[in-house]
Amino acid sequence: MRSTTIAIRSILPAALACAALLGAWTAAADEAPLPTYRLEDIAAHASQDDCWMAIDGQVYDVTEHIKIHPTQPELVAIWCGKEASEGWHTKDYGQPHSPAAEAMLEEIRIGTLAE
User: Fold this and answer.
1) What is the β-pairing status of strands 58-61 and 46-47?
2) What does 39-105 look like in DSSP terms, one character per residue?
3) Beta carbons of 45 and 111 less than 8 angstroms apart
4) What is the model's pTM?
5) What confidence tens digit (pLDDT) does each residue in 36-60 have?
6) Which of 44, 70, 59, 48 is nearest to 113 (CA)?
7) Distance between CA atoms of 85 and 103, rounded to whole angstroms?
8) What is the pLDDT of residues 8-23, one digit of tens each?
9) Taking 80 as the threshold, does the pLDDT of residue 99 lie above it?
10) Phi, psi angles (nearest 5°) of residue 111
């Protein structure tokens, strides 16, 4: 039993170091830069069944969100495949989206818009 305890104590620092490195690597992988898309790339996703939008320099895949959006799908779909900042900021009648909607938008971000 004593030799097992000594063996565990001797490898514990190495195991903790490995775990720390793995955690740092995983965090770095999560923070990897997103791809950059051109408007031409976004335009290829211009339907309710495949809907990407550029908003304020970021690119979003809103395909699944259209199904749960509180308005009719057609109101969102008119922005599919386009630069949609105006639609996002005004909702077509001058009102901004809620903070909850902004948080949801972040979850579906897939890249950045090329300048």
Assistant:
1) unpaired
2) HHHHHT-EETTEEEEEETTEEEE-HHHHTT-SS-HHHHHTTTTEE-HHHHHHTTTT-PPPHHHHHHH
3) no
4) 0.70
5) 999 999 999 999 999 999 999 999 9
6) 59
7) 16
8) 445 434 443 434 444 4
9) yes
10) 175, -170
Angle at 40 between CA 83 and CA 45, to 5 degrees: 70
pLDDT for the residue numbered 60: 98
Burial of 43 (0-12, 13-18, 19+ CB in 10 A): middle
Better-scored residue on pLDDT, 71 or 15:
71
**Cα torsion through 48, 93, 112, 61, rounded to 10:** -20
53 and 14 Cβ atoms separated by less than 8 Å: no
- Pairing type for strands 36-37 and 109-113 reads parallel
